[in-house]
Amino acid sequence: MTVPPIHTIATGREGSLFDTDIAAVEERLRDGIKGSRILVVGGAGSIGASTVLQLAKRKPAALHVVDHNENGLAELVRQLRSRPFDWSADDFRTLPLDYGSAAMRHFIGSERPYDLVLNFAALKHVRSEKDPYSTLQMFETNLIKQAKLMTWIGEAGFKGRLFTVSTDKAANPSSMMGATKRVMEHVLFNSSVSHALKGPKVSARFANVAFSNGSLLQGFENRFARREPIAAPMDTRRYFVSLTESGQICAIASVIVPGQSIVVPKLDPEEHLVALDRIAERFIRYHGLEPAIYEDEQSACASVESELKQGRWPLLLTPRDTAGEKPYEEFMTESETSFDLGMPNLEAVSYVAADRQAIDRVLTATSELLNADFGAQPLLTKERLKEIIASVEPSFLETHRDAKANLDQRL
């Protein structure tokens, strides 16, 4: 009997939902990629690497992949080299660079202009707003370095297509992570640096990627391997796509979708929103065991071996009471409108512009915090960072879900 791919416990499908979308635009994809010069930033992460595989098999002339995670780059090279007949690039390189560093600026300046630049680099965990220092790092990575990248490629003569991945959590954000990605969209589409940069700019918001690096579901696998209890929040539903599906969405968005738009999947909340505790139960059953429900962390941790002898695995259910957690996800706000792309499972949201001066002030205020001397005012606090976001996204003062507990205080 063939065992279904593990991502099916979250997505409910073995094949890709977007195969028909890819088929509908395959000729345009190949025309846009074949012979082109491509730079992928953050290309060693789960979504970035999946997108690299989509690009590489359509024969670009140059494919340069940048990521500060050199181990991830090594694994990406191994993955590509294991598929010698499925990809090609005359000039393929990986570079272990921080994309906001001086080394990155020198590298961009040394290269001929690219035809396509994709940025996947981000701090993407809700848990990273646990203190103002981690949150400031999120601001730097998701906003300041994005602006630097745009400046540098513009100075190098870039006039091609620029894609930066967003997240479903950017729609009515309840977390600092979602809010910084929402502001990232503003930086991409309507900041002064964006105005100075020629060529189409595109983004994408989509669901959680099942078993991606650092995800809750990958945590299930790690905990299972270490013989630890599985943990999941109650009353929390999420959309999921597979790794392959995430790469397909980003390839389509980056190559053929009109500028000033954000690609989103056509997912039905009744059909595709899945409760995380149900996925945890399915994961345990996928491995031939039955879930044993716990609500106390210490009891769950002490019970693994005894439960295993009875064919069960402890599943700790936790309340949804930590900062930034939403009960469900959404892809667009009430103020946004979608338009058809001629594909069965993907559509696009038209970017709704924020005030350019307000966007620029966010970048300036963040830079001032990053460069402030020790003890300088204003003090670095989560409240100050929240005020900076609210200067361009006032509704964040209402939608932000704050709490004393954070995800580091959960199993």
From TrEMBL:
Domain of life, source organism? Bacteria
InterPro entries, A to Z: NAD(P)-bd_dom_sf (IPR036291), Polysac_CapD-like (IPR003869), Polysaccharide_Synthase-Rel (IPR051203)
Family annotation (Pfam families) = Polysacc_synt_2 (PF02719)
The residue ranges of the Polysaccharide biosynthesis protein CapD-like domain are 38-305
Q: Which family does it belong to?
A: Belongs to the polysaccharide synthase family.
Q: What is this protein called?
A: Polysaccharide biosynthesis protein
Q: Give the organism, scientific name.
A: Microvirga makkahensis
